[in-house]
């Protein structure tokens, strides 16, 4: 995706109003590109957060289009360009005094991850080097987030396998305990609760696990 800027809307150069902030959906990436500050949407406040909320609530805007088409989307002048493409979002963004908004979609293979958005208060064209840089950043974000997701998935799988193993051991131990209770109940003509009380008492006095005591009873290594 790096350097792929051919599908961006890039009209003639307009005012050089600085791009003041960027929202990166779904990541905590930070950085700078020619005076453009990058900030996580999850941490954003004020204008940054509202830009995301407007597009999410209305289901339209450059970020949604970038996510849907998986191509960079440029609105260098929202007042001139945005009304026809995203009428609701454009009106709300203009009220927020957002004059231009660019969106770059991080994705890996068929997996779409989110959208990196940068904006300025006035109409603003990005240079070719800026566009290439932001496309490159989107590619880096894609790989980074995918790697984090895979690492987390690996941890979850390991945790799940550990939990399953622990559950199986608990079930196996419970079966042995029930067998030992039944053996003692029959041997001493007592009920199951009394049998379990004897097993538990012996486990406490010897500082052994109840499952170990029960296994020893079933195996004949412990008689009482």
Please give a structural write-up.
The chain is α+β, with helices and mostly antiparallel strands and 224 residues long. It is 55% helix and 14% strand. The protein is built from seven helices and eight strands; from the N terminus they run E-E-E-H-H-E-H-H-E-E-E-E-H-H-H. It has helices at residues 47-58, 62-69, 78-85, 87-95, 128-188, 192-206, 210-219, and strands spanning 19-24, 31-33, 36-40, 73-75, 100-104, 107-108, 111-112, 116-120. The chain has a six-stranded mixed beta sheet with strand order 2-3-1-8-5-4, with helices on both faces. Strands 6-7 form a two-stranded antiparallel ribbon. The longest helix has 61 residues, at 128-188.
Distance between the termini: 75 Å
Strand content: 5-15%
Write out the strand line-up for the largest beta sheet, numbering strands in chain order: 2-3-1-8-5-4
The helix/strand class is: alpha+beta
For the report, how would you describe the main beta sheet?
Answer: 6 strands, mixed
Percent range for helical residues? 40-55%
Judging from the principal axes of the Cα atoms, what is the shape? Answer: rod-shaped
């Amino acid at each position: 995706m790096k350097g792929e800027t051919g599908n961006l809307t890039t009209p003639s150069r307009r005012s050089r109003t600085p791009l003041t902030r960027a929202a990166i959906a779904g990541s905590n990436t930070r950085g700078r590109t020619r005076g453009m500050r990058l900030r996580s949407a999850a941490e954003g406040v004020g204008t940054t957060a509202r830009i995301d909320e407007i597009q999410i609530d209305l289901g339209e805007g450059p970020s949604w289009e970038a996510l849907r088409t998986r191509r960079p989307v440029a609105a260098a002048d929202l007042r001139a360009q945005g009304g026809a493409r995203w009428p609701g979002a454009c009106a709300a963004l203009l009220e927020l005094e957002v004059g231009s908004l660019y969106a770059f979609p991080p994705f890996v293979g068929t997996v779409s991850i989110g959208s990196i958005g940068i904006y300025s208060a006035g109409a603003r064209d990005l240079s070719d080097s800026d566009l290439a840089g932001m496309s490159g950043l989107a590619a880096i974000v894609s790989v980074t987030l995918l790697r984090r997701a895979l690492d987390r998935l690996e941890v979850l799988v390991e945790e799940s396998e550990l939990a399953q193993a622990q559950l199986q051991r608990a079930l196996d131990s419970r079966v042995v305990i029930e067998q030992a209770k039944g053996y003692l109940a029959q041997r001493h003509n007592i009920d199951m609760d009394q049998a379990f009380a004897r097993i538990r008492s012996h486990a406490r006095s010897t500082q052994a696990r109840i499952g170990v005591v029960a296994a020893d009873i079933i195996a004949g290594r412990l008689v009482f």
